Amino acid sequence: MAAQISGKRLVPVIALTLAMTDPRPPLLLVHDDDDLVAVSKPPGEPVIAERGGSPEACLRRRLEAQIGKRLWVVHRIDRDASGLVVFARNADAHRALSLAFEHRQVEKSYVALAGGELEKEHGTIDVALHSARKGKTRPARPGEPGRREAITEYAVEKSWRQEGAVVSLLEVHPRTGRRHQIRVHLRSLGAPLLFDPLYGRGLLPPGLDGAPCSRLALHARRLELPAPGGDGRLVLEAPVAEDLEQLQGWLDAEWAPTPESPGAR
């Protein structure tokens, strides 16, 4: 339980203890000021505690332990994705940042590797989404109650081919923030993310057995958002995760770039 002093909630003692006992290297802080801290999340770590799991087994608690301060959750990315996550350092910043996300004032950019060939080099996916069973999301049916607008823009940066199979490196910009939006939208185009256990099962292209990465091939690379204090905008960027960099290098060595690929020109 957290202690209370002068009406302020302290970081739980058990979380602080993690900083002394955690064998993992410290999290990479991309930005840190009086209002927010931005961190590069490793793959496989949830932003907040999962149902039924330890309340301390999440990115928020690990980062609180590292910096010794309480943090407010502003947004999330998928557990198996890597990349940029922003936390607020105080209630006012949390309110301002949450409103910025809600009002679509935040520009988001992801790196994704998808199994499949997209018809267009760049495009916009405008497919409404609906919640599905077991925490999943699906494309909504026309006029279906509960459908929610969802828009994703993408651009093909490079692609590789081997024996008819294609892998595409994409820059993806979600304009809305629905659950699993990028994953469902790319699946709707016939190009699911590589190694996606929810939306790509049975659809992995052949020839990836020796790949150096086998987790969801999605990385939150960049955020541009209003500064909570009202002084301009912040541009934050997390370097692409090492395992995804290795995957791209492996594809360069083992697969052939497609002649029409932007990266092959």
How are the SSEs placed, and which strands pair?
Layout: E1 4-5, E2 8-9, H1 13-21, E3 28-32, E4 36-41, H2 59-67, E5 72-73, E6 82-88, H3 91-102, E7 107-115, E8 122-126, E9 129-131, E10 137-139, E11 151-162, E12 165-174, H4 181-188, E13 218-226, E14 233-237, H5 242-254, E15 256-257
Parallel strand pairs: 6-13
Antiparallel strand pairs: 1-2, 3-4, 4-6, 5-6, 7-12, 7-13, 8-11, 9-10, 11-12, 11-15, 13-14
The overall number of domains is 1
**Mean pLDDT level:** 91
In helices, the fraction of residues equals: 10-25%
The succession of helices and strands, N to C, reads EEHEEHEEHEEEEEEHEEHE
CATH class: Alpha Beta
Strand content: 25-35%
- List segments where confidence is low: pLDDT < 50 over at least 5 consecutive residues: 1-10
Under CATH, the homologous superfamily reads Pseudouridine synthase
By CATH, the topology is Pseudouridine synthase
How many helices in DSSP terms? 5
Cα-atom radius of gyration: 20 Å
The main β sheet shows up as: 11 strands, mixed
The count of β-strands is: 15
Note the gap between the termini.
58 Å
* General form: globular
The name of the CATH architecture is: 2-Layer Sandwich
Q: Briefly note the structural class of the backbone.
A: alpha+beta
